[in-house]
């Protein structure tokens, strides 16, 4: 069996289809609220040729402040792992497994772990639950073609149809197709996206979704710095429930990688969701536990953030 050494170059990993592949972001704010510019944090950010800041530079302009840096590095970590795991899972059985380092930290530090030193779940943790589920949808490239990989690692057949759509940034559906599939147990089925859907007039203003059952895959064909995001607009409703609350967010514009940082509401608060992307008109519900004194009128300004929030979207 061929075992690939750890992949550290995210730009070439899609050329790699090893048989078996083994593999950073800050902790939650309440775990280690150290500004990014203090010496210890600077060393971690810029050590080994500034890997964290260099990784952000591929997609975003330099963060304006610590809060923006904190959010974007967590986004970058989750996206990078997702890119690799989805790629390798789509090549089953050529690649038969990935080993991710690591699950948890034992001290408060900026690292590659999915759970920080105080046991708080990073966005990566929630992403891992999606990535390693028995059933997964993912957009991939095969010989220059855009395809949807229907990954079925369950013990039962998966039969259905994938609805593939190309949208404008305002949510308008520009093209759509239904692709029927049958994925036998522990197989991957590749579905070619029809050219009418796959070919965009302007990749800076268009994006793709693929939906089957309750699963959705997203595809953006350019970096965040090159994408014409609208300024994020949404409605958020806090509903107290026992020792916590639910926060229902309804998008009025595209929201890319919306994140609720629950510990900004209360140091002990936890939420059940990570990064969530929504089209205009769509909603999602965050369950928040351990939020003592949850207030329907709570200011969510610092707790809810997405890539295209006015203060975090790329600056031209």
From TrEMBL:
This is Beta-mannosidase. Keywords: Glycosidase, Hydrolase. PANTHER family: BETA-MANNOSIDASE. GO terms for molecular function: beta-mannosidase activity. The keyword Magnesium does not apply. The keyword Electron transport does not apply. GO terms for biological process: glycoprotein catabolic process.
């Amino acid at each position: 069996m061929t075992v690939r050494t750890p992949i550290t170059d995210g730009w070439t990993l899609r050329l790699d289809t090893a048989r078996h592949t083994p593999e950073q972001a800050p902790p939650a704010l309440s775990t280690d609220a150290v500004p990014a510019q203090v010496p210890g944090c600077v060393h971690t950010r810029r050590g080994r040729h500034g890997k964290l800041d260099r990784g952000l530079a591929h997609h975003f302009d330099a963060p304006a402040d610590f809060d923006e840096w904190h959010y974007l590095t967590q986004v970058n970590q989750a996206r990078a792992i997702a890119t690799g795991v989805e790629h390798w899972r789509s090549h089953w059985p050529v690649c038969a497994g990935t080993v991710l380092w690591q699950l948890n930290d034992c001290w408060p530090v900026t690292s590659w772990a999915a759970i920080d030193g105080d046991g708080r779940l990073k966005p990566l943790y929630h992403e891992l639950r999606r990535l390693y589920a028995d059933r997964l949808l993912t957009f991939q490239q095969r010989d220059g073609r855009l395809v949807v990989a229907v990954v079925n690692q369950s013990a039962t057949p998966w039969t259905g149809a994938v609805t593939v759509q190309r949208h404008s940034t305002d949510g308008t559906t520009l093209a759509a197709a239904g692709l029927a599939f049958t994925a036998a147990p522990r197989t991957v089925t590749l579905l070619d996206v029809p050219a009418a859907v796959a070919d965009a007039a302007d990749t800076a203003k268009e994006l793709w979704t693929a939906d089957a059952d309750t699963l959705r895959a997203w595809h953006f064909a350019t970096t965040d710095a090159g994408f014409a995001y609208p300024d994020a607009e949404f409605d958020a409703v806090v509903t107290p429930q026992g020792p916590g609350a639910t926060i229902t967010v309804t998008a009025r514009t595209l929201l890319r990688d919306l994140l609720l940082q629950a510990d900004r509401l209360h140091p002990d608060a936890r939420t059940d969701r990570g990064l969530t992307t929504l089209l205009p008109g769509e909603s999602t519900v965050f369950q928040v536990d351990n939020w003592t004194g949850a207030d329907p009128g709570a200011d969510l300004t610092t707790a809810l953030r997405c890539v295209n929030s006015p203060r975090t979207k790329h600056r031209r």
